[in-house]
Amino acid sequence: xxxxxxxWLRSLPQGLYCEPGGFFIDPLRAxxxxxxxxxxxxxxxxxxxxxLATRETLALMRARMGAERAGEAQQALxxxxxxxxxxxxxxxxxxxxxLGSAQVVMNWRGSRVVVSGxxxxxxxxxxxxxxxxxxxxxxxxxxxxxxVFRHPPAGQEIARLLASVALxxxxxxxxxxxxxxKCQRLIALLREAGWDRPIYxxxxxxxxxxxxxxxxxxxxxLPAATAAAKQALVGAIVLAPPGAVADRWARRLADPVxxxxxxxxxxxxxxxxxxxxxxxxxxxxxxxxxLNMTIDEVAAPEVWVTHGQEDALIHAxxxxxxxxxxxxxxxxxxxxxxxx
Length: 340
Ligand SMILES: [Zn+2]
Ligand SMILES: [Zn+2]
What we know:
With about 350 residues, the protein is an alpha/beta fold. It has eight helices and 19 strands. The chain has helices spanning about 55-65, 155-165, 180-190, 205-215, 270-275, 290-300, 310-320, 335-340; strands spanning about 10, 15-20, 25, 35, 50-55, 75, 85, 90-95, 100-110, 110-115, 135-140, 175, 200, 235-240, 255-260, 280, 300-310, 325, 330-335. The strands form three sheets. Strands 7-8-9-10-11-17-18 form a seven-stranded mixed sheet, covered by helices on one side. Strands 1-2-3-4-5-6 form a six-stranded mixed sheet. α1 packs antiparallel against α4 (about 205-215). The longest helix has 14 residues, at about 155-165. The chain is globular and about 70 Å long. The model has no long low-confidence stretch (mean pLDDT about 95). The structure holds zinc ion (2 copies). One zinc ion binds near residues 97 and 339.
């Protein structure tokens, strides 16, 4: 009989540990061997000795933390390429969250666990789509695991932004978005929607856009907002970190319309308290329906929840006969708050 995953994949203070394989997944502290799902800072931490991830995730980690902190030894693994780790067969499958984001699939003695990392199911022109795979235990996030969280199609929110630009041609639209993933997805969605004018960037967003470009993404013209003449920003779209859109930095823009792109914008009070005039519900995380659909698709009899609103998700899974377990790993979700 295949061993139950709880006997070989353990939740330790450092994070999820695959005992026979001798590696951690997204460890919260520096460890000897780490497998990293994606480059958001709550999952990809500095100082590991050996880091295994997709080529894209490794490039993003080096850009964010510097090559020396991104792992003494870095090993890239291709999509769906099997790797033997002391008898554990490991593969990386696309998670659809940000560029390079992967699910970690582990097979050991006939038992299979999939650790999703963060994921979404809506299409994203900047990364590969989530690939569901059957497993015995599915380890999922739960950032938006409440029935109130339902993300509309991102294209619909982009259409609302462009309608507002058309309505207020004398104002600058400044969109708050997280530097890794959301920013590049917005640019790609705007291009898909036919916006071919320059998209101005706050300086904090430029370096990671350059990594995406080096990895083959084409964004069109992305001038620096601070270098632009005030007149050029009239009627323009400017992307900035969420923290910059309502502060002094944005005051130089022409009568700005403040927008923020996040799954949290579903919560009206949240948008209001942050002075957001145009909340855009665009998220890189699965919403309530996507989480439940994914749990059904992977057909695992058991689901473990790493971080987020685990109670409602475990309850809903239980109603369908799926066993749920909250891992309560402390330390994930910090970056997601802004990135979601
Ligand atoms: Zn993430
Ligand atoms: Zn996360």
